[in-house]
Amino acid sequence: MNIQEVIRTINRMQADGVIDSYAIGGAVGATFHLEPVSTLDVDVFISFRPEPGSILISPRPIYDYLTARGCSAEGEYIIIAGWPVQFLPPTGPLADEALSKAFVHDVDGVPVRVFSAEYLAAIALQTGRAKDKARLLQFVESGILDATAFEDILTRHALAERWARFQQQFLSDTP
Amino acid sequence: MTPDLSAILKSKSLYRQRLAARPVAEKLRMLDALRERALLLRPASSSIVREDPAPYIPGKTR
What we know:
heterodimer; A: alpha+beta; 2 domains; 5-stranded mixed β-sheet; two-stranded antiparallel ribbon; about 45% helix
């Protein structure tokens, strides 16, 4: 069970040309900015490469690469160093932009690309499950969000109204 | 005993801030430990403890 080995494996995949850019999102991504957020899997957003001669994108090269190196597939996950890892295409324009603007962090000398706090918060607002709202509250309460950058993202991705509702529901003294 | 809720909440907030300020490598090791704990509590049939996936958000909005 070693999430740093997951990061090293993803970097090797990138160096070997299996994936182009990647960024870690979800709770693991949030942990780079907040206190550790308990999670059951690792979400890795990647830009999928179409297979030669096809316009369809496929995760097969990733699965082939990793299973050839001893990883096992289990459902939609592939198990790397004991962690279920899900490779995801950007789930819409917001995640697409988050991927292109991800930051590189250093973990004990190992580089890792991670969504910024503002994009993670915006994605949590857009996704809107209970745990996403809880994560968004964590970001707000932590005080680490760049308000200008966050509101710019919300405006460009038509999330301003949803943000106003969230503020009214969770950040207002008057319910 | 009169519990002072505001003091408890402040203490929790400070603890979370201290955790957030830990080096990333240390926080990732905490995630490893948290997942190992989750696996101890899971049904024995799978190494996967499933989460509901986030919905796909179609359409360009920018």
